[in-house]
Structure formats: C-alpha cells, structure tokens
Backbone:
C-alpha cells in the first residue's frame, strides 16, 4: 500500500509499505478514505517535530482519518464489512493509574497515530489501509461525508476544551486564534449557548470565516488590541477564554479583558510563555490546560451526525494523497486555507 511518510523536514514522500495486517481478535481493518492535515503534521513537515520531539525514523503522518471497514477480527459484533467509520487516533493502555482513574487522555503508555513522542514512532493514518482496535472505529451515518468524519478528531479536541471550561450558557467567550481549532471552538461555544463570541486573529480571511461560523464580533489584532478596549470595563467582561493561538502576546492581551474569576483554557502550543502573575492573582483567574480528548470523540461524531455542528465550511480543499506535498504547502498558507484534507 501507499503511505504519506515524513523522512526529514520538507522531505515528504509517497512510500510503499506492507499492507495492513489481517485484524486479530477485537480488531478491524479500515480502508482509509480521507485524512485531514493537522498543525502537528505541519510541524513535522516544516521542522521535523515540535518542542523537544523530533522524528528519528521515517513516519507516516496523519491522525484525522475516516474510512470503511474491509475486514473484521474475531469477537467484533457491532461492526460489519462496509461500515463507514471515523477512526479515533488514541489508543490508551487502559491499565495505568490515569486510565483507571478515568483520565485516559493522560495515559502513561498512549499510542497516538502519527506521533514521534515514542520510539519506535507510532505510524500515522495517512495510508491506504490501517488495522485498528474495534473501539477506535466509530460508525458514522450515511449522510455524513468522509471528509466531515475526518473532522471528528479536531472537533473532539475542542469539545474536551469546552468540558474543561465548564458551562458556557449565557457566557461571553473570547477565542484567540481563528485557525481550525479556534474555528471549531466557535462552533462548540455556539452550541453551548454562549451569548457573545468574540474572536481575534491577525488575518482578515480567517476572521471572515469566524463571522460566518457564528462569531458575534471579530477583531484583527495585527496592529494592536485597541479593538478590545471596551471589554476591559469593570476589570474585564470576558467569562471564558479559548486560547488557540499559542502566542504569548495574545494571552497577555486577553488577560486584561477577562472578568475576575474567569477561566482561561489553553489549547494553543507555541512554546514556553511568561505571563503577568500579578494580573492572574489579583483577578483570581483560572488557567486550565486541555489535552486531546477521550469520550468526546464519539460525541463529535454524534453532534455532526445530528446536524448540531456543521464542519463543512472549514474544509477548504481535498487533494489526492499523491499530491501530499502540494496539500501540505496549501495547508501551510493561512491566507488560502482553513482545513486541507487528503483523499485516499
């Protein structure tokens, strides 16, 4: 089979790999149909990794994937050959202290597709077929496209972030960074009943998309944050911040408009930050990390299937996997794309 494999920064190849093995007990084999290019995939493509993580061997990229079951292992009764599914890229061990405590996203032995965090690397899902545990295969309704199903993973990330934030009903929400994750946070905040959704970014194109998705107000902060000045009244008017940029300046500016006792949920990863602790202490702000997801993956599929969240506007382009380099370059240009997917 063919796979989209990163060998070194800017060295992305279509390699031939052994076919996915026949499924064992409790497993299914999936014929991959669609895969979305994520920010982490772009980090591998441009830099060979992120933070201290670096590729040490060729690795198939991709973890936003969907496809069709084409073989079933023993003991799997809830899926049939031909079933259309979204594939959760997370495979927790189910035995460590965190898994037993119900925090499977914090698993000590997590296997996450397309990750160089462990050696040997966990090969990703940008390939023509993949054998997975049956629990990773979430059926999708007939009317949901494979491209939409492949959006379940990033949507699950944002649903988990919303769980970390707490109730959003009637709250004023600020989203900093209107890329794919920020855009999905808008949809989640809207579904959660937020009364006001303010979005900041430095690109007019992404802000225009944010407005289409339900942002009640957009502010381009490229030249400064004066457009947020009115939100500083009474020590700040923002209840919840979804910080999706990973930019220190964006975080610091947002702290000035947050209400005392407000909740900052940090999604963006841009490196270490220096934050004004006096502001955080004096306003009794709550900073909450959010990492991946667990039950939210199946919830993402359900919400899309019921039409409660529509991700179609975010899918900018779908290119054949053989044009992976072109697709990665397009996905890297924020002025031209939101979410770029590969078709297998």
Residues:
């Amino acid at each position: 089979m063919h796979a989209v494999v990163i060998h070194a920064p800017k060295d992305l190849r279509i390699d031939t790999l052994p076919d996915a093995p026949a499924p064992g007990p409790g497993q299914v084999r999936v014929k991959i149909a669609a895969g979305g290019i994520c920010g982490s995939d772009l980090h591998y493509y441009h830099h060979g990794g992120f933070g201290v993580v670096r590729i040490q061997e060729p690795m198939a990229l991709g973890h936003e994937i969907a496809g069709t079951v084409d073989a079933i292992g023993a003991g799997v009764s809830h899926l049939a050959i031909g079933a259309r599914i979204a594939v959760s890229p997370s495979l927790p061990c189910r035995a460590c202290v965190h898994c037993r405590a119900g925090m499977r996203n914090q698993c000590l032995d997590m296997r996450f597709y397309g990750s160089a965090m462990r050696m040997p690397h966990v090969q990703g899902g940008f390939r023509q077929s993949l054998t997975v545990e049956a629990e990773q295969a979430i059926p999708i309704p007939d009317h949901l496209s494979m491209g939409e199903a492949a959006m379940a993973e990033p949507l699950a990330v944002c649903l988990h972030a919303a769980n970390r934030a707490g109730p959003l009903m009637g709250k004023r929400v600020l989203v900093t960074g209107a890329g794919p994750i920020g855009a999905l946070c808008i949809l989640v905040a809207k579904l959660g009943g937020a009364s006001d959704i303010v979005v900041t970014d430095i690109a007019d194109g992404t802000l225009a998309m944010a407005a289409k998705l339900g942002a009640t107000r957009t502010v381009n902060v490229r030249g400064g944050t004066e457009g947020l000045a009115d939100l500083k009244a009474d020590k700040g008017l923002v209840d919840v911040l979804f910080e999706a940029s990973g930019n220190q300046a964006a975080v610091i500016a947002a702290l000035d408009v947050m209400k005392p006792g407000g909740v900052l949920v940090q999604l963006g990863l841009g490196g270490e930050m220096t934050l004004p602790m006096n502001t955080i202490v004096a306003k009794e702000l709550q900073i909450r990390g959010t990492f991946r997801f667990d039950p939210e993956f199946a919830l993402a599929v359900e919400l899309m299937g019921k039409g409660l969240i529509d991700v179609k506007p975010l899918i900018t382009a779908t290119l054949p996997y053989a044009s992976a380099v072109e697709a990665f370059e397009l996905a890297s240009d924020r002025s031209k794309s939101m979410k770029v997917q590969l078709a297998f």
User: Anything to note?
Assistant: The first helix runs from residue 39 to 47. The mean pLDDT is 97. The chain has ten helices and 20 strands.
